[in-house]
Task: inverse folding
């Protein structure tokens, strides 16, 4: 994962990557760097322009973070 960020487990998302600290702040979408980068149009945007998320996908992610960033348990 580029920058050491992994989003395949809640603990990894909360720990974040090598430089930004936590990628998500449960209950605080506006303070979550992951969401800020997804909404960005600057050089730090995620994902790159060719793979941008649809507005509905961004809204779902924002709602998920606002509701505490619950994560499904994997068996």
Result:
């Amino acid at each position: 994962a580029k920058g050491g960020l992994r989003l395949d487990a809640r603990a990894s998302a909360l720990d974040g990557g090598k430089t930004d600290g936590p990628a998500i702040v449960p209950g605080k979408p506006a303070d979550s760097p992951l969401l800020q980068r997804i909404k960005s149009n600057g050089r730090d945007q995620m994902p790159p322009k060719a793979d941008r998320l649809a507005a509905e996908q961004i809204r779902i992610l924002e709602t998920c973070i606002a509701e505490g960033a619950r994560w499904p348990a994997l068996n």
Observations:
- The chain has a mean pLDDT of 84.
- The first helix runs from residue 10 to 15.
- The helical segments are 10-15, 33-39, 55-66.
